[in-house]
Amino acid sequence: MSQSWMIASGKGGVGKSTVTAALGISLAQRSIQCCCVDTDIGLRNLDMLMGMQNSVVYDLMDVAQKNCKLKLATLAHPTYMQLSLLPAAQLGSVTDISTDDMKRIVRKLKKHAAYVLLDAPAGVERGLQNLLPASDQAIIVTTPDDVAIRDAERLINLMDQKKAPRPMLIVNRVIPEMVTRGDMYSPQIVANTLDIPLLGYIPDDRTVIASLNNHSTFMDVKCPAHDAIDRIAQRFLGEFIPMSTFAKKRFFFSRKTY
Ligand SMILES: Nc1ncnc2c1ncn2[C@@H]1O[C@H](COP(=O)(O)OP(=O)(O)OP(=O)(O)O)[C@@H](O)[C@H]1O
Ligand SMILES: [Mg+2]
Questions:
Q1: Which has the minimum average pLDDT: 41-50, 72-81, 112-121?
Q2: Judging by DSSP bridges, how do beta strands 34-38 and 3-8 pair with one another?
């Protein structure tokens, strides 16, 4: 049974698109058919994160406005056969697509992909609310700081009001040494604060930025963020993968498992 997942955040720039692209790649590397949809209309960037910026011709808006068939706008990834991308339009806003159109498009995508990952725009405005009815479940991405956590809380409250299923949490850009020193919230503390289950955390990793600047993906190299995404993908698929505990410095034998 196919599933659609919205990847959302309250605050912008916390790593939704990075997570969507990397999780999609990790699932495809496991031979699972996955379609990533960039719903951040006007601010499209998922195509770049997936290394597909030169292939985009049609987009989500074209499909919604029936300018082209869904099949024509959905691009197969050049490396991972199981992965595809439905890009966002460069112009317009997510509010230009109706809830019904979004539901119709996602329903069609689910016929071909086991997982449809919807990269949401930041915030709690109407555009995001249009996405909720098209999503079976949601992942909230946050960084471990008060501002992002408070914005995530607002989003979760809004989802509660809309009777959406309780989302799962990914804490991004964690710096383990700072957590150990007590200068950064641990992922588990963030999950407890937001009162939602923790799917995993991703360390702050320079390879993520370096790969982007080299027009590649960190999922093609061995690095801590890649390991973390793989563990998240395994938990996403229902496997039991233990979560790292952040021991105080004197217990530095504890194994990092992200
Ligand atoms: N784990 C990480 N380590 C280092 N850099 C990261 C990490 N995750 C994301 N970044 C960087 O943070 C920036 C923002 O990431 P991204 O575009 O995925 O955020 P977003 O939530 O989708 O933003 P927006 O709200 O604008 O859509 C990018 O430059 C990305 O490379
Ligand atoms: Mg984004």
A1: 41-50
A2: unpaired
